[in-house]
UniProtKB/TrEMBL annotation:
Record PANTHER family: CATIONIC AMINO ACID TRANSPORTER, MEMBRANE COMPONENT (PTHR30133)
Keywords from the named record: Cell inner membrane, Cell membrane, Membrane, Transmembrane, Transmembrane helix, Transport
Occurrences of domain ABC transmembrane type-1 (ranges): 20-219
Lineage summary: Bacteria, Pseudomonadati, Pseudomonadota, Alphaproteobacteria, Hyphomicrobiales
Protein name: ABC transporter permease
Any one GO MF annotation of this record: transmembrane transporter activity
Record-annotated membrane-spanning stretches: 20-43, 55-77, 97-115, 198-220
Amino acid sequence: MLELLSPVPPGWGGNLLRGLAHSLQIAFGAFSLGLVIGTFGAYGKLYGGPVIRDITAIYTTIVRAVPELVLILIIYYAGTDLINHILEAMGYARIDISGLVAGIVVLGFVQGAYATEVLRGAIKSIPQGEIEAARAFGMSPGVMMRRITLPAMLPHALPGLANLWLIATKDTALLAVVGFSELTLETRQAAGATKAYFLFYMAAGLLYLLVTLTSSAIIGRVERWARRGMPSVKEA
């Protein structure tokens, strides 16, 4: 990587690495937020009342139907404007939301819809007898979730969640349209300033590939840990 960056003026390699760090910060924050939203969404869809089920169904349907770039633009601009209008109506001054926070919230909102469906499917894959046995022992919903549901659903949810993490790392590139200095925007600025387009976009591609390969290796170890004691799954 250093050899690739050496023919261009010094300093741009650091910009790319800084952009990569910002991308990973947003991806991790968005994935974590999406996981929280998805957990509540999955439980709402499965065990909530009619109103909760309808709200979660509308949420997941709209988010999965509308292109992510459009959602980012709507939430980033319209959401910020709505918050400031509410603050002004309450007598407070307008605020500037940091790009990092806005990026995490926007992508986390999108991730939450997909995580809802992944976790809902994983929960439904748990043998019903385990749930009934927990209820027969008098476990509260919270204890049952911690001791039965979450451990039993983890092996089924991990493949889908791993895919969502990889999507989150790549979706950070969409935030370049709102001016956040993640890897793609830093790459575009570096390439535009030096005219070394091939060099910098290849470097960015290699960085994204490195993140994907590292993530896949870690995810593979986590999946093997989660499936310990279960029959091995052979790939076709």
